[in-house]
Amino acid sequence: MARKVAIYTRISRDDEGDGLGVARQRQDCERLADLRGLSVAKIYEDNDVSAYKRNVRRPEFELMLSDLTAGLIDGVVSYDLDRLARQPKDLERLIEVFETRKRLTFVTVTNDIDLSSADGRTMARVMVAFANKSSHDTARRIKRKHLELALNGKSNGGPSPYGWKKDDPNKVDPEAARHIREAQKEILAGVRIGTIRKRWQEEGIGRPREGTKRMAHHHVELMVTSPRLCGYRTYHGEILLNDSGEAVIGEWDTINTPEEWEAVCAAVAERKQANPAAGRPVARKYLLSGIARCGLCHNKIRGQINRLWKPGSKASKYSYQCSVVNGGCGKVGRVGEPIENLIIDLVLEEQRRRAAEDGSPTSAEWPREAEFTAVSDDIKALTTAANNREITMSSLLQLLPDLERRRDELKLERGRFQREIKRTESVSEGIKSREELRELPIERQQEIILHSLSAVVIHPAGRGKRIFNPDLIEPVWRD
After folding, report:
1. 164-274: in CATH 3.40.50.10330
2. pLDDT at 280 over 50
3. Which fold is adopted by the domain 4-148?
4. CA 23, CA 44: separation in Å to the nearest integer?
C-alpha cells in the first residue's frame, strides 16, 4: 500500500499574483511522488510568503507540521529543502517531528536527505544555515540598493500609491488626486477619517483590494497624510534627509504643497490627541450634541431618539434633553428639528455677513517663517561644516540636537497655523442654504456651527402647551 504523503510548495515573491512558481514546484513534486510510488494525500501551498523573515507566519507550513504530528500524513515531498525552511528554528521543528514519528518519508526533487538519521539531520542543518546566510546577504544588498534609490529621490518599484497613475508612479492621476484633496479639505473642516473611509468604500475609491471594498482606517489616513503627497522621500517610514539636513525630494509629481500637507497632518494629529482611545467611536448623531447647554444648570445637552416616534407619525423624531444621568437637572427638554433649523439659519446668515465685510480671503503668512528659515539654515551650515571637517563630529552632536528640536517645534507650529488658515477657508465653502449644509457629514456641520458659536443655551419653556419660541434659544457667538 502506497504511503500517504503531502506536497509542500512555497515561493517568497509572486509579483504577478498568478501562482506560476508554486504550480511548477507542484508539478515536479507530483512527478517525483509518482516515480517513488507515493500517494499524494494533500498539497500545502504558501504562495508569496517568505521563509526567511522572522515575523512572517506561514499558515500552510504550520498546518503541515500539525498534520504530520497527528499522523494524518506519512511524509513530505518538496522541491528543495530551502522551500521548507530558511530559518534554523523551523528546521528543528521539522526534525523534532521526524524524531518523534519514526519511518516518516522526506524527499525533494533536487536531492534526498534522510531526516531520521543523524548524518542526514546534520547535512540538513548545514544546508539551511547556508540558505539563511544567502537570504541575509540578499536582504543586505537590497536594503543598500533601496537606500541609494531613496537618497536619489527614486521609488523602490512596486505598485503605484493611490494618487498616481498605475502605469507611471511619477505621474499624478487627476481623478485620484481630486479625491485626496477633497478628503483633505473635509478633514480640515472637521470630518473624521472614519467617515471618509466609509464613503470611499461605498463609492469604490482608494484602490481597495481586489474582491473587496473594505479598507483599513490607517490605510486611508496614510493616503491623505503621506509625505509623498508633497514630494518628500521616506525611508522606513521616516522622511529621509540628505547630508545637509534637508528633506530629500522625490522625482514624482506632487499633489500638495508642503504647507498644505503640514496643515492636514496637524489636523489629524490634533484629532488623535483629543481622542486618544483608539477605535472608540466619536461621531455624533445630532448636530447640537455637546454644543447645546441647559438654561437652568448649564450642563451640556445631548440629542436622543424619541421612542414614541414612528415613520409617518407627527411626533418629533428626536429631542434635546438635559439628563440627570449626565449630571444635569433633567428639567429642560426641547424638540430637536426647530432648534437646529433656527441655529443653522442664524449661523449661515452671520457667515454671509462676515464674508461680505471681509471681502475675499487673503493668504496669511506665518509670522515666524523667518525664524524657522534661520534655524534650518543653521542646521544646514553645521552639517556642511562637519562634512567638510571644519568642525569635529563631537561639536556637531553637541549643537545639533537643540537646533533639530527647535526646528521640529517650529514646523509643528507652522502646520497648526496652516491648518487653521485652510480650515477657515474650507469650513463653510460653497454652503448657501440649510439644505446644502444638511447634506454634509455631521462632523462638518458641527464644525461650521462651532466656527461661529461657542454654545447654544436652551431655556425652559414653562408649563402648558409648548409652542416653539425662538426667543428661548440663545446662541452664544464667538468674538
Report:
1. no
2. no
3. Rossmann fold (3.40.50)
4. 12
